[in-house]
Design goal:
By secondary structure, this protein is mainly α. It is about 70% helix and about 0% strand. It has helices spanning about 25-55, 70-80, 80-115, 120-130, 135-145, 150-160, 175-200, 205-210, 215-230, 230-245, 250-255, 265-275, 280-305; strands at about 60, 65-70. It has a two-stranded antiparallel ribbon. The two termini are about 45 Å apart.
Length: about 300
């Protein structure tokens, strides 16, 4: 609308026309569209989470009258060596669930992109399958493979490396790394799919310019591929670190926290304290602490991914 079309007041000033309403339904209707999802989220996620925080300040079995203990349940997480070791084990699993898959995925994504191997789509699908298989089924299969008389030890003995055979899931030293390598096998396909999708969007002109400047494979990876996959690496870190910290199915089926407490993780202790020893307050405190750690880890990863 031009100035000449604006109405003129008695004083000769032009007044702006009333603000036009945006065509379509009122904005308040949009909130009605999302209301069912908000109610479901509040009923099954938000309010239970708030209630678990409330229970974490009490001690009891959740049926009889519970006693208020303040922050004693949280203090016990720091002082109790078993509870403290559970978080240490979860941090160790991050190496297997996150760092190893990303390192191997970066290497293979660079090689596959540089060499243009035929049938990449087939290999990508085959490697992605472990991520979509039920974790319980994976745990049962790998418990059989890693058994003292399982296929892995039989194979080592068949090729003359019987001295390397171990009771993998029954050894205090090898139990956690064995579970961790299963996590590497599960998460590797997801990470590789993310990185392969990301490397395809990097302009080929950057690679050509790097090669014209005499860059070898390592310099090409460091100067072109790695910066181009920055956001894909952040997404992969968020997904894999979260999977490592909330790991329960694999631990429960393969080791049940054993041998001893060598493979206990926070999520398994939440189950154990809530349903085996009926310590609802301690379980709620452990679950709340685990959620705080997961949120903090994701915030740190996201912030590091945005920083230049």
């Amino acid at each position: 609308m031009s100035l000449t079309s604006l109405p003129v007041t008695a004083g000769g000033r032009r007044t702006p026309s009333p603000r036009r309403r945006v065509p379509g339904e009122p904005r308040s209707v949009a909130y009605l569209y999302i209301l069912p999802a908000v109610l479901i989220y509040a009923a099954f996620v938000f309010f239970p989470f708030i209630h678990s925080i409330y229970l974490s300040f009490f001690e009891g079995n959740g049926i009889t009258r519970m006693e208020f203990v303040g922050i004693d349940n949280y203090v016990d997480i720091v002082r109790n060596p078993i509870l403290r070791s559970a978080f240490v084990h979860a941090l160790e699993l991050i190496v297997f669930y996150s760092f190893l898959p990303i390192a191997i995925g970066l290497l293979l994504a660079s090689v596959l992109h540089r060499s243009r191997i035929r049938g990449v789509a087939f290999y990508r699908t085959a490697l992605f399958l472990p991520y979509v298989i039920a974790p319980t089924a994976i745990a049962v299969i790998w418990r059989w493979i890693l058994a003292p008389r399982g296929p892995l030890n039989s194979f080592l003995e068949a090729i003359g490396l019987g001295a390397l055979a171990q009771p993998w899931l029954g050894d205090f030293t090898w139990a956690l790394p064995s579970v961790g390598m299963v996590g590497t096998w599960i998460m590797f396909g997801l990470v590789l799919a993310l990185l392969l999708a990301g490397v395809q969007k990097i302009p080929t002109e950057l690679y050509e310019a790097a090669r014209l400047d005499g860059a070898g494979p390592w310099m090409e990876f460091r100067a072109v591929t790695l910066p181009g996959l920055r956001y894909e690496i952040v997404v992969a870190l968020v997904l894999t670190v979260t999977a490592a910290l909330r790991n329960f199915d694999i631990i429960y089926v393969m080791t049940s926290g054993g041998p001893g407490n060598a493979t206990v993780v926070p999520s398994y202790l939440v189950y154990q304290q809530a349903f085996k020893v009926s310590q609802i307050g301690a379980a709620a405190a452990m679950g709340t602490a685990l959620i705080v750690v997961i949120i903090a880890a994701n915030l740190l990863i996201s912030r590091a991914g945005r920083s230049d």
